[in-house]
Design a protein that fits this description.
The protein is mainly α. The chain has 2 helices and no strands. The chain binds zinc ion.
């Protein structure tokens, strides 16, 4: 079985990935695809963290 991220041979510890890093990359990819929806508010984020006033 090959790592879906880099196509190297996967390891038992991180199956189906070859490493923790590749596992994280794949998870982030899925997270980005499912959470970033153009024109829609993002659920799960604290509004205060993204308040424009706090960024100034
Ligand atoms: Zn990999």
């Amino acid at each position: 079985m090959k790592c879906p991220t880099c196509s190297k041979v996967c390891t038992e510890d991180f199956k189906p990935f070859c490493s923790k890093r590749c596992s994280d990359i794949d998870l982030n990819r899925w997270a980005n695809e499912s959470y970033v929806v153009p024109g829609e508010p993002i659920d799960g984020f604290d509004d205060e963290l993204f308040d424009p006033h706090t960024l100034e």
